[in-house]
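Chain A, query sequence.
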Amino acid sequence: MQQPLAYRMRPTKIEEIVGQQDLVGPGKIIDRMVKAKMLSSMILYGPPGTGKTSIASAIAGSTKYAFRILNAATDSKKDLQVVAEEAKMSGTVVLLLDEIHRLDKSKQDFLLPLLEKGSIILIGATTENPYISINPAIRSRTQIFEVHPLSPEDIAKAIDRALSDSKNGLGEYDVDLKDEARDFLSKATNGDLRTALNALELAVKSTSPDTNGKIAITLSVIEECLQRKALTSDKNGDAHYDVISALQKSIRGSDADAALHYAARLIESGDLISLMRRLLVIAYEDIGMANPAACARAVSAVDAARQLGLPEARIPIANAIIELALSPKSNSAMSAIDGALSDVRSGNYGDVPIHLKDAHYKGAAKLGRGVEYKYPHDYPNDWVQQQYLPDKIKSAQYYVPKENGKIEQRFKEQYEKLRQVSRK
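Chain A, predicted structure.
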């Protein structure tokens, strides 16, 4: 049985990897490891279809080490022992261990000494946050790298490569992939290359050629094979981003009905991921300090939607959209951090005041570090006047409170009161 296209197009060397150039690009950490043949065990975490297996396969191919794939949940300790024996016989083995967050204690205890020796280069793959879901004993013996959803440009590049590759791809077929179909396929999969390639293969192999032997892949064919609908007919390919933009601007403008409409477009297209991510951005960018509880409830709604999946996910999402749209608005927190970042990036900052510097190490007191620091909890109301900003920018003000909600009004009163006392 022939393997799926995404499997056949898996890279065999680092240079063939699509995306994740912050890790595998020339001069980047994994590229350096491969070139120096100084591999260390690592954990790759991120959404499905973003290249975790591809990176492991390419590392093995570039270094000519044996490559094995196991699943921490379904493969047994005996399967790990087979890989360990192979490593003894032939030298280093690169082991991709999928779902590493589900590794039980028995398998973990077996692996740890092998990782210490370096006979097995473990590449753990997971969609979970490893700092929460993976045992510290494994974490301490690995480097942790986050992989991100691929950009539409990355996916389009991989699509073109698959269509031109006659050995492993679809190059033997005379395919006419329409521009709007290619654009939709590269964007609608939300950075999941596996889904894009497998939908492409289904489209090509299930579409009858015309009398000239050409297989025309139209937008409607890709919609059917992806089971997602294009949001609108858009020759420039911007419809997806236009709808997301309209969603945020509708909530910012307090129009709940318009926001629900644009959310419905995203839901109907199957793009729950973009919708959830955008709602989190909106909550903290546009509502922020005016109603922090609404931000927290938006996070809870997104968590619920993620666990429920469609179609039920639409319910917590709708709750969040209505509350965010009708909530008081404030972008003061975003403006504050952007102002602080602007100063730092332009070099407009000074040395940390000496009384705030770390005083825990031996000899710090001799250097005057932390000596004059006043511990606020030793004073009435747990507050005492002292300088916190560097001398160069000691009067800087980044946070400019708004009065669009009762909560930020209270924050404003407290903030201005403290600044006034400090100035005196």
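The beta strands are 42-45, 66-71, 93-98, 120-126, 143-146, 175-177, 215-217. DSSP finds 19 helices and seven strands in the chain.
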